[in-house]
Amino acid sequence: MSGAARPDRYAVVGHPVAHSRSPSIHAEFARATGQSLEYGRMDVLPEHFVVELRAFFSGGGRGVNVTVPHKEAAFTLVDATTERAARGGAVNTIAVRPDGSLLGDNTDGAGLVTDLERNLDVTLARRRILILGAGGATRGVLAPLLARGPASIAIANRTPGRATALAATFADLGDVVGGAYGVVDGGRWDIVINATSASLAGEVPPLAAGAIDGATVCYDMAYAPDDTAFTRLARERGAGETHMGWGMLVEQAAEAFLVWRGVRPVTGAILARLRAGG
Ligand code: ATR
Predict the structure, then answer these.
(1) Which of these, 40, 67, 139, 271, is most buried using a 10 Å CB contact count?
(2) 247 lines ligand 1 (CB under 6 A)
């Protein structure tokens, strides 16, 4: 009967999740790598997260991608975490291990680093990096960014205490400081990363005058068909390059696919299509 067995099941779990690109990305990865799997969407309220996930896995589900607002809840749900998930206290990928236990991983940072270095040819080593925002998005990428050996990372945030606390958590990994806009963001930066959720509301964090010039790479973790408010502002201020987070989205997905299936899909074609507005 094994020929009639149902394909392995995966899903993206979030709230809201209707517009998630993950199902189409993973379906394309599966086709391209010849893997047989199903990948769906689970719109789950925070108060139902644990029950729904337990039901998914006891029903035979093999893995999930976790998105807003569940990444910290996922961290506490799993039986074990990878080092990169433990560092950030957040899980975006859960895999069922051979013994049935749940492994929590976080592929967001690897996705960002791969996009910057491999897709966009941006050097991180010895660069001055400014990160705007000190929420879960920043927490998830700090360790992989620091591992690339930047000269320094500054985290600026509307609520300065969150940024100083975050910087202190990662201080053993490199030169990282946190604080308020207008305080830690002085001088010019080689790379400015918007990790706030301001873009989602069409707003921009306060980008310091003089922070960017024609050699600065500006990257918004958010993405939109044309521009985000941040990439538009950065271009108006004369940034050398502006990028949205399409590549981070696709690369974190490829990394999750690797965790689940043992094969890393090629990302170029799907990324080009998403960037072109698909
Ligand atoms: P997530 O876990 O998805 O990153 P979060 O923890 O709520 O979400 O973090 C959102 C980040 O965007 C925070 O850094 C937040 O600043 P505060 O810590 O001061 O709340 C930032 N943010 C959201 N809207 C913003 C805006 N309009 N201007 C500047 N920063 C904003």
Answers:
(1) 139
(2) no
The tokens for 201 are 């509301």
Type of residue at 179: G
Judge whether 43 counts as a catalytic residue.
no
CA nearest 10: which of 77, 61, 81?
61
Does this model's pTM top 0.85? My answer is: yes
Q: How many secondary structure helices (H) and strands (E) does the chain include? A: 10, 12
Ligand 1 atom, smallest distance to 133 CA: 14
- What pLDDT sits at residue 278? 66
Spot the catalytic one: 26, 62, 71, 87.
Answer: 71
- Comparing CA positions, the residue from 188, 186, 191, 196 lying closest to residue 163 is 196
Structure tokens belonging to residue 163: 């940024």
Q: Is 198 in the pocket of ligand 1 (CB under 6 A)?
A: yes
- Residue pair 191/216 in contact (Cβ under 8 Å)? The answer is yes
Other Cβ atoms less than 10 A from the Cβ of 119: the count is 18
Cα 180 to ligand 1 centroid, rounded to whole Å? 13
- pLDDT value of position 244: 96
